[in-house]
Amino acid sequence: MSDFSTDFNIGNTPAPEPEQPAAAPQTTQTLTAEQEYAKYPLSDTEKQQVEEFAKKIDLYDSQTVLQYASGTQKQIADFSEQALENVKTKDFGEVGETLTRVIGELKSFDVKEEPKGIFGFFKKNANKLAAMKTRYEKAETNIESICKVLEEHQIRLMKDAAMLDKMYEINQEYFKQLTMYIIAGKRRLEYAKDAELPTMMSRAKATKSSEDLNAANDYASLIARFEKKIYDLELTRTIAMQTAPQIRLIQNNDVQMSEKIQSMLVNTVPLWKSQMVIALGIEHSNKAAQAQKAVTDMTNELLRKNAETLKTATVETAKQMERGVVDVETLEHTNELLLSTIDEVMQIQEEGRQKREAAESSLQKMENDLKQKLLEINS
Question: Widest CA span of the chain, in angstroms?
């Protein structure tokens, strides 16, 4: 505000020096200059600038009234538009979608596996581990790509936050400038309404001159125009006042989103990678343990089968070793057969002898009968 008094094209004829207003009744609800000082504190130097500038305001100069604070007013309007545009164009949806993609990638990696049998164990486990590594590498590649996008968002958000800090400072400066313009204008209006206009009205009443009466009425119109100008400045100052929390709100959103991205980059993703390494390590250990169990089970099974086979073979060999060339049972059976054969042979021989004896008797009888017949014939 060092160039506060140079922002106006003040006429060559300075305005009358304002005096402290008398205790005149207030006709509006707006704050007086003193109330403005109380509500919006200024430094002693700034107060001095305001008082000096108020003395230079020429209400008769229409150009001065028209351009009063117009530069700052336009800056405020442009600045407010810029802030509102930042609100409208700020899109956190893309950042949110990117964060959601990261979470989706993290959730897509599932290290659980279905129970497996012993048969085909090594082949299935090798395929499972290879599939896990493939999914991990794919997820890691996608996450790295997403993280690059997040880093770009973070850089942009940090730049926006720094820019918003600057915007906030500028807005505060604009607000102070407007306040100084408003106080200076109100100080000038107070002097005009409390000192100059009553004097002119008194003169018109005393002289009853139409010229003096017109001059008083014209001056009253000028005062009304300038009051409207000050009111417009107060509206503009309200915009500046509303803009300050808007800036902080946007800035807070930027900072929070930047912090969330930072947490994702330095905490979540590295932690996920660590957990994936641990998961793969656990998977290796599980595979090794399961492989060891499968080998142990197979070894035990082989030992059991070999023991059973060895027992069977050993017992059979021992039986064969203890067995004679010819079994007693075989000898007994052979002997029984031999005895039976002898008995049968003897029986056959006895039957043959008996048959022979019978045959001899028959033959003797036949021979005797034949001889008898022959004797009979010969006799």
Answer: 236
Task: Give Cα 122 to chain centroid, integer Å.
Answer: 36
Give the integer Cα–Cα distance in Å for 316 and 116: 40
- Stretch (H or E) spanning 106: helix 93-108
Q: End-to-end alpha-carbon separation of the chain, Å?
A: 202
Write out the H or E segment, with its range, that includes residue 221. Answer: helix 210-263
Tokens 């980059």 belong to 265
pTM score, two decimals? 0.55
Rounding to the nearest 10 degrees, give the CA dihedral for residues 357, 361, 362, 367.
Answer: 130
Long-range pairs for 106-112 at CB < 8 Å and ≥24 separation? Answer: 106/139, 106/143, 106/268, 106/272, 108/135, 108/139, 109/135, 109/136, 109/139, 109/276, 111/279, 111/282, 111/283
DSSP state of 120: T
- Under 8 Å between Cβ of 294 and 118: yes
Contacts (Cβ under 8 Å, ≥6 apart) of 77: 236, 239
**Interacting residues of 14 by C-beta distance below 8 A, sequence separation 6+:** 55, 56, 58
> Other C-beta atoms within 10 Å of 177: how many?
23
Nearest to 261 by CA among 102, 91, 105: 102
> Is the pLDDT confidence value at 310 over 50?
yes
Residue 377 confidence (pLDDT) above 90: no
Is residue 110 very low, low, confident or very high in pLDDT (cuts 50, 70, 90)? low
* Cα R_g (the chain), whole angstroms: 64
